[in-house]
Amino acid sequence: EAGVVQSPRYKIIEKKQPVAFWCNPISGHNTLYWYRQNLGQGPELLIRYENEEAVDDSQLPKDRFSAERLKGVDSTLKIQPAELGDSAVYLCASSMGTSGTEAPQYFGPGTRLLVL
Amino acid sequence: GESVGLHLPTLSVQEGDNSIINCAYSNSASDYFIWYKQESGKGPQFIIDIRSNMDKRQGQRVTVLLNKTVKHLSLQIAATQPGDSAVYFCAENYGGSQGNLIFGKGTKLSVKP
């Protein structure tokens, strides 16, 4: 079974430039998550989707970050404009669970972003 | 605050020995816990999970113990191998928003040959 797919794996941009990350979750997983992981830290949730609906985006910096999951499958996360402090690994995860259920989340390999 | 913490940031063990990685949590409403393994340059890999109605769960070479009385979680790895070297995270399902995981900072496990 294919795992969570993310692209690109690495991205280097200059500050103030836009950047976008793409995620394809495990087939059949209706819940999709975007996390940010800083060096030496655990992942921190940015946004959670159940199908097409963003059910928790409370931690998403909405002034510069946006996300979408138009058909309830693939998702994109965008930063515009990027700042130096956005340098991190952006992880996508998916699970079969929804609110009220417990199911493990499976992570992709991440996109390593460096903002210069 | 209510967050998942760790007792040890690093752990070094001899190949073949058993490893125990500890985790403390403070959110009494958390009812689901997961251990992840993260190798350098990779995303977190699911190892094992446990629900709050259990106190022990076993997998292949791994055992998770949950002590709700003292809010403590541990991961035991039997016969540790060099391939087990990684950072291990515990994560709790935050009771106030089911489905969201709160991760600790991780414990780095190093296995000496």
Question: Largest interface, by Cβ-Cβ below 8 angstroms: which chains and how many residues each?
Answer: A-B, 27 and 25 residues
Mean pLDDT of chain A: 93
Low-pLDDT regions of chain B: none
- Which oligomerization state do the chains in this entry correspond to? heterodimer
Helices and strands of chain A: which structural class? Answer: mainly beta
- What average pLDDT do the residues of chain B reach? 88
Helical content class of chain B: under 10%
Structural class of chain B: mainly beta
Number of strands of chain B: 11
Strand composition percent of chain B = over 45%
Radius of gyration of chain A: 13 Å
How many extended strands of chain A?
11
Strand/helix succession of chain B: EEEEEEEEEEE
Structure description:
The complex is a heterodimer of chains A (116) and B (113). With 116 residues, chain A is mostly beta strands. Chain A has strands spanning 5-7, 10-13, 19-24, 31-37, 44-50, 53-56, 65-68, 75-79, 88-95, 106-107, 111-115. Chain B is an all-beta fold and 113 residues long. Chain B contains no helices and 11 strands. The model of chain B has no long low-confidence stretch (mean pLDDT 88). The chains are: A mainly beta (116), B mainly beta (113). Chain A binds chain B through residues 4, 31, 40-45, 48, 55-56, 91, 93, 95, 97-102, 104-110, and chain B through 4, 31-32, 34, 36, 41-46, 49, 51, 89, 91, 93, 97-101, 103-106.
Name its key features.
heterodimer, A: 116 residues, mainly beta, 7-stranded mixed beta sheet, 4-stranded antiparallel beta sheet, 47% strand, B: 113 residues
